[in-house]
Design a protein that fits this description.
The chain is mostly helical and about 200 residues long. It has one domain: Four Helix Bundle (Hemerythrin (Met), subunit A), CATH 1.20.120. The protein contains eight helices and no strands. The structure holds protoporphyrin IX containing FE. The site of protoporphyrin IX containing FE has 27 residues, from α2, α3, α4, α6 and α7. Its main location: membrane. It is found in: Membrane. InterPro entries: CYB561D1/2 (IPR045150), Cyt_b561/ferric_Rdtase_TM (IPR006593).
């Protein structure tokens, strides 16, 4: 069953990201399209990076999954900085007010949360001395895991908000596709939490 749930997560994340990339590659080019393009990468990488850890069971699988997780979340980190920079400078250049829509406000919170989560996770793995040594760092993994499970729905809600922004709807207005993708990821991720009882490591 764990395989089916993981497949649902991957397909859902890919459906969402590829739909965004379909939109951004079909509209006339302008600087802003890099915002949804990069944020779709955030959705795909952040979601996959969690799914892979959920599936790992043996020690060897966990080691491989942790490496994959680091890679995926590093791409997430860089993409979210890029995606935020694009929308922020685009609005600044057009003298538009920042963080006015619910998506923009949620986006600012989500952006900050991703930065904190990534920096904290990377510190635990790469600089365990900061928290008092490897054993202490390992004991703190569970906080990183729990906050990750808060962050993932926040990322998805923010991205769903982006799909309902006026510009996006003027290009592509099929809510059912976004909800199908999010629903697949929700079922798959929650299903895998239960089957592994949160024992990621
Ligand atoms: C985790 C993913 C995302 C984050 C963190 C995020 C973040 C943000 C932020 C902070 C703003 C406001 C910038 C400002 O006011 O200076 C914004 C604007 C915008 N975003 Fe996103 N975004 C995400 C995903 C998406 C997606 C997937 C789309 C489209 C499919 C999208 C479309 C838009 C649009 C059209 C705006 C301009 C209108 C508005 O401010 O509401 N975003 N985003």
């Amino acid at each position: 069953m764990s395989f089916v749930f993981s497949l649902l997560v991957s397909l859902g994340a890919f459906l969402f990201a590829s739909t965004v990339w379909y939109i951004t590659s079909s509209v006339d080019y302008f600087f802003f399209i890099w915002h949804p393009t990069l944020m779709a990468m955030v959705i795909l990488m952040a979601t996959q990076g969690i799914a892979i850890l959920q599936k790992a069971e043996t020690r060897q699988e966990k080691e491989g999954a942790l490496n994959f997780h680091k890679l995926m979340q590093s791409i997430t980190f860089l993409s979210v900085i890029g995606g935020f920079y694009i929308t922020y400078t685009f609005k600044a250049e057009n003298n538009a007010e920042h963080f006015t829509s619910p998506h923009g406000k949620f986006g600012l919170i989500t952006f900050s949360f991703i930065l904190i989560q990534s920096i904290a996770g990377s510190t635990l793995v790469n600089f365990p001395g900061v928290v008092g040594g490897a054993a202490k760092a390992r004991a703190m993994y569970k906080y990183h895991r729990i906050s990750g499970y808060f962050l993932l729905p926040l990322i998805w809600l923010t991205a769903l908000g982006g799909t309902q922004a006026d510009w996006t709807k003027s290009q592509f207005d099929h809510l059912w596709i976004w909800l199908t993708a999010a629903g697949m990821v929700l079922v798959g991720t929650v299903g895998n939490i239960n089957s592994n009882k949160l024992k990621v490591r």
